[in-house]
Every structure is written in C-alpha cells, then in structure tokens.
Amino acid sequence: MNNILFFxxxxxxxxxxxxxxxxxxxxxxxxSAGYTALPILNKRGxxxxxxxxxxxxxxxxxxxxxxxxQAESRKIMEIERKRNHIPVRVTADMHDxxxxxxxxxxxxVVDDKDAFIGIVTRGAIIKYCQQMLLSEN
Length: 137
Prior knowledge:
Largest sheet: 4 strands, mixed
Number of helices: 5
CATH superfamily: CBS-domain
Helix content: 25-40%
Mean pLDDT: 92
Strand content: 15-25%
Shape: elongated
Structural class: alpha/beta
Number of domains: 1
Distance between the termini: 19 Å
C-alpha cells in the first residue's frame, strides 16, 4: 500500500478552526468536536498549524486572565503553540506518513498548493497494520 489517500479522512469530514477564530470560538469548536487538537486553516483552505487543548489552556491563563469575555476578543493566531503537526503532501510516501504519525496523533495532508485536503489519523495507520499482521497469520 503506497497511496496515503487510502488512509485519508477528507476535509469535509474533519473538524478544524479558522485562523481568524477567537479563543472562545476555538474552545467551543473543540468542545463540540470532542478532539484535543484541531488543524488551523485560513479562509483559502491552507493549513496554518495545529491548536491543542494545552495551547488554549495556557492562552486563557496568560492572555485572558481566565476571563471568558477577553477570550472573545483574542484571536487564536495570537496563541503561542507548543508545536504544530507537520503536514505531508498528498504525494508523500508511506515512510514519511508513518514517521510523522509516530510523533503526531494525526497528520495533516496538503496538496501541491498547500490547500488542506484532510488528515490521516494514527489510529487509521495502526488499524491497517493490525489487519496486515492478522492476514499474515
């Protein structure tokens, strides 16, 4: 299996936030989606980074002083993020995909114009590997 599209969760099925969201909007989106990390996109659909629960927690403490009214006026791109999930191109090989997934719970996938097209979850890769191991026995 050399095509990473086999593992792709398409953008239409992904939860994400836009780079002009406020901290409060991002908190609400993350809560409703039920994920601990979400891709950040701009309005052109380009991947801008990853926002985590930890990033939001520390931003509330450091930028909003635990005041939700201030969280309505601060944009998520003001948040200092610990690290971003590094994307792969849709043409990446499985080695690159697995390498990224070993340190990220999901891998953003972009096209040749840096447009976000979806994610590959670590779980999807593990499930595939599990099926391959079981089919060998």
